[in-house]
Every structure is written in C-alpha cells, then in structure tokens.
C-alpha cells in the first residue's frame, strides 16, 4: 500500500474474466459442497447455498481479506509477470509468457478444502476430419490425424507448445509428473472437470457480471448469484432449441 | 455482283451496323449508361443487396450452421424484451447526446481562436490533427493504461501524488462511459477543427468590415454573421459526428476487452452488441435485427438533423 491507501502489491490476482471464473465454477462451487451444473451441463445448479458460499469466498478475498484487487495492473497475468502479485491462477498456455519472469516462481495444484476435496477445470480441443473430405485428401488427413495424436507427437507438443498430452500414457510418464512445472498441472487433470459451454463468451459474461455486481455495486451475493443463474440458464436453453 | 457494286458505291463510308444507326444523342446516352452501370452494379452488389439481405436475415434464425428458417418478428420481440438491449440503446444515445455537442463546442472554440493565432499556426493545427491520424485501437489501449489504478495508471498516479483519492474511471459503471467518450472526442477533434477553420475562412471579410463600420459589437458580429454563415459547415459536422458516435466501437472494444462493453454493460454500444451476437454467439438472425435497428436510428437521426437545420 502507498500513503494514500492504494494497493501497490497484491497477494493474489483477482481476474474473473481470466481463469477465475473457471476456478469458481468447477472448483470452488464443488469444494463448498455443490455442483455447478447437472451432469449433462443442461441445467444450472450453482444457485444454492454452496454457490453463495463459493461466491462469497471469492469476493471476500477482495472485500474482507483484502489480499487482491480486481483490475489491479489491468490483468492478473500482467500483475504476476511484473512481480507485483504473489499468486495467480492460470493455464498451461500462459507458461510461455511467464518463462522470462525475472524472479523465481513455481507451480502448484489448486488448494484443497478442509475436507481434502480437490477440483479443477480443464479444457481440450478436438481434431477432426471434415465430412466433405474424400479420396486422397481423406487419406492424407487420416494420416495426419494419426500422427498428431501419436504419443511421439504429443510429447513434442508438450515440449514445444506447452499443452498437456491427451494420452494418459504420454502425460503420466515419471519424467512429466516429476517436472516441477508440468507436474502439478498433470496431477490436476486427475480431478478436473470440463464445462460444456454452449456459448463460452456469453456464459463467461454472466459470471463476470455476477462478481462485478458484488464487488462494484455492493449487491447481495445471493441476489447476484440468482440473477447469473437465470441468465446462464437462458443462454443454455436458447442454444438447445 | 450486287455485293461488289454495293461496296464500290459505299467507299469512304463506314459499314452499316446497328450502332451506326443510332443518332449521336442516343450514342451519348448509351455511353453514359455504360459508365454509370459500373458503380450501380458495384453498389447494388456490395451495398444494397447485402442491406436488403440483412433485412431478410433479421426475420430468420440463421446461425451459420443450419439453413435460415423464417421466424417472423421473433428476433425483434426478444430484442425488445431484453434488458441488455435497452441498456445498450441508452448507452448508444449517451455517446451521441454527450459526444456530439461537446465535441462540436470544443472544436468550434479551438477553431475560432486558432483562426486568429498567427504564431506557429500550422504547427498548432497539426498537433490538433495528429490524433485523427492515429489508429483507434492503439489510442484505445494507451488511454486504457492511462486510466488504470496505481502503480501503472498515469492519471491515478498523478492524483495520488497530489494526495487525492484514485478515480475508478473504467472500473465503475458510473464513470466508464464518459472515460471512453473522452478519448473518442479528442480523436475526432482535429478533423472538426480543420473543417470549422475552413468554414470560418470562407466567410468574406467584407461582411465583417461592413458590420464594424455600422458599429456592431463583437458579440453581435458573432451572432449575426459568423454563426449563420457557418451553418452549412455546422450541419455537415453535426451529421458526420453524430453518425460517428452512434456507431462507436473501436474505443469501447479496445478499452474493455477483458469484459467487453462492461463493467455491467455500462459502456456497451449497439455496434459492440451486434458484433458479440453475430461473431461470438453466432446468432446471425438476431444480430441482423439489431443491425436493422441501428440502420433505422442512423437514418432517423440524420433526417431529423437535416430537417431541423434546413434552409428556411
């Protein structure tokens, strides 16, 4: 803090538009004893006490515990890179830009709750062959797909790009699990959930607004959560039509 | 042979074709239309056809993947019952109602006095014009950093050096829209100043001389000569800048990429909503309906301004 009471260094980044909305949805809600959605991801179920507790836990980090401030240094990753935030929650894709950090840093799993419950969020992409491919092109694309999904290619992809391998046999080698940087990410995969978004930007927006209503407008977390659940359910229902 | 004798007879004349039977007048008309056809086809193909296509799309549920299905006015119904749309509608007019008068007032005052400055006139004018040449995206990002809280925000850094509390700028729904509007006004200022100066210079100095001889004061000259004769310039700038503020996008998008149009939709203009509906939610039909609304607003506002400021 400076003389005017302004934050100049923070304990952890609070950036709901970054990865924090995933942390809240798939990790915190579950750790507070709830579930964000039904198993088919067609119904929002975080609008219960667990959701309220999870939201309050998150917003309290700024309003009560004062360990971070949303919007500090514009983005959480920028605050961490500048060495002005102690911790940040981010994905493997960020490792490249953190590689040149001028200070010592490390990776660890997301914290478990008091009962030892852990949860995480993981997203993946799928390679596929277009339905209109035929003949030579189809053959070539099959060969290509076979190669990019081979253990060899996945290991190269991890080394060069930093994305985790999809094959367990490749991902969970002793070397990879013992890696101080990739190890924690790989361990996190074991208890990770993948949100099935129908409109990721739209659904993320309902979550960002939910936190902003509490942090900026000082709204009641429960009212804000109910509003977000209503909006997100409308997006999911709309896409199902 | 009749053919041979025919050609002998017509030596020195052009062969008879359909073209040659036309009179010079008709030929001219044909040439004119040939040349005119090009821009007409061009505009028909890339302007008018897509415009009508958008009107049609606004009545469908096209989502890029499945073929468009006619849904009547359903898109318009859901738009009118969407609170976000009304918030966005309000924001769009806030940009217009604050932006246009404020930017015209500032640029007029600058032009009026800059016109009298002789010292480094060209240099000062260039300084005002410079922001107009800058890419809006780059400008948006630089201002976004100006507005950050300490330790990186220049404006807040300055305030705290003076011992004043930090301002929220882009982080609060109350101040974000105005914070985005300021750089937008600043960016367009140079253009408006140049046009106003040109308008001021076009007023014959004899009018002023005659007025002075008749004993008119500065204020009377300003009201009776400068303002009325500047009317065509003012109309142009009002229409031009209104259209600019009604379709503001670059500044908003670049200054709020983390939470586009936020916080809490407080800065989202119609164009950004259209962009998100179309290219992040892929609801092309709904986006087309919003486009039709924007088109109608632009049309009505422009016509109203021309009517209000018409020559009487």
Automatic annotation (TrEMBL), chain B:
Membrane topology of this protein: Multi-pass membrane protein
State the UniProt keywords alphabetically.
Answer: Cell membrane, Membrane, Transmembrane, Transmembrane helix, Transport
Locations listed in the record: Cell membrane
Matching InterPro entries: ABC_transporter_permease (IPR051393), MetI-like (IPR000515), MetI-like_sf (IPR035906)
The record's listing under Gene3D superfamilies reads: MetI-like
Q: Where is the ABC transmembrane type-1 domain positioned along the sequence?
A: 89-305
Protein's UniProt keywords contain Transport: yes
Transmembrane residue ranges: 29-49, 93-114, 126-146, 180-203, 229-249, 287-308
**Listed name of the protein:** Sugar ABC transporter permease
Annotated organism of origin: Devosia rhodophyticola
